[in-house]
Write a structure and sequence with these properties.
By secondary structure, the chain is α/β, with parallel strands linked by helices. Helix content is 38%, strand content 20%. Strand 1, helix 2 (26-33) and strand 2 (42-49) form a beta-alpha-beta unit.
Length: 521
Amino acid sequence: MLDYVCQHFNSSTYLSILEPSAGDGSFVRAFAKTRFPECIRKFSLTAIDKVPSELEKAQNVALTNKKQATNYSFISDDFLKYQDNLKRKFHLIVGNPPYIKKQLLSKYQIDKCQQIFHENGLSQNKIKNIWTAFLVSSCQLLAENGVLAFVLPAELLQVKFSQELREYLRKNFSRTEIFTFDELLFDCKGQDTVILVAFKTHTHAGQFYTHITNTEQLLTKNFTLTENEALSLTGIKWTHHSLTSGELLFIHELGERLNNVGYYCDSKPGIVTAANNFFIVNSDTQTINGLEAYCIPIIQKGSFVNGSVVFKKRDYNELVIERKPTKLLSFDNSPMRNLPNSVRQYLISGRNEKLHLRHKCRKRKNWHVIPNISEIPQGFFFKRCHHYPKLLKNDAKVFVTDSAYKIKMKDKYNINGLVYSFYNSLTLAFAELKGRYYGGGVLELTPLEFKSLPIPYVDINAKEFNDFAKSFENKNNIEEILNLNDFNILNSVLGLSQNEIQRVNSIYRKLITKRFRIKEN
């Protein structure tokens, strides 16, 4: 990173560098080895870290790898506190800021993050992780010709709360460059990361992207940066820079012509138990503890419903026979002493495991009484998936955990039409565009992301739906269903030609390929 950005300063005689989260000195070590332009005669390096033992390691790195004509400053402090009184500007700010979720931050840290956002015109309620405040504050500490180079979580590109940050970067920098990777190149606890390089001024302005397939490609600079202004025009997440501007504008325009999922149905997260392994039992545990009168049927996770678009009573019964956890404990708020002894003993075993001390259990009137069970859903959408998103009709009349969103159709629309219409290349492409993905190719959609999916809704009769369900169950892969459905749905609703439909499917396959990080043949 340092080697890459240093050439930007080929007319400078002095370079000031800030590392706001120095850790054990990785960037300090790299600084000593970097070949800066010969015109730079003098350097200053300011390294900050709140953990004294880590900062001491960084200092030792500087002592053993000292760069000539450099003034080193090692400051043991919380950067968010220190930056309050930091008046000077820096030519180059580099680092790998900490990734700490809001719920793990102290009140002081949250207040500082909110202050930084407020001072820079950003929404204070968008504070989800401390790295965002490090980024915004560092942007403000750059000199006029400054450069920022950070290792950041991939969520910068894909999650909703980062959308405002992406726009902030676009407005505050002449040129931004994003490097995404096939491999987890940085030691960030398995966190998928990107490199952001942002230039305050640049002769070639714009937003540029590149995807790196291996370390050698990065080190030898064997990559091409491609501009993609359509990402800003469409509001589509920066993750999808692999699509061309033409592809992005094409699919965005199609989505604008459709109602979204939330127009046809209400959807809410399923049941939160706070301890699935205790509150969802199999038939053996139910019988041994005499829990039959207190159990209702439930689906715990998406892997229990693979391969179909209808979850039937027989499917549920097969799970019971296989001794899968399929029984949800459902108690009312009557005194525990009124329960049979065997049931009380089971609940006591839960207390012995300290389940009653869990955050969600503590908030309940009675720790063992699960709230908001409500009515059985007409269908469910599982928020995480692998090969394709799962939207199913609930013929088994079972409940579902918060691994899924409960579906209730609005007046004039039916669950058969929603499920059938969902499985087309356009809607599945938008699921890829709007969701976020994790290691191994897992795709996740939040409740709002699911509701916002454009869908070309088609009403079908019972026989047509049954034929569709049989085809779906007998498929070898989702492409077979898209080959059957795409023309019937996309032509009838949007009037797309066969060539346009093939283009939609090509975009979908491109997005799938990227998520699984496999190379096209």
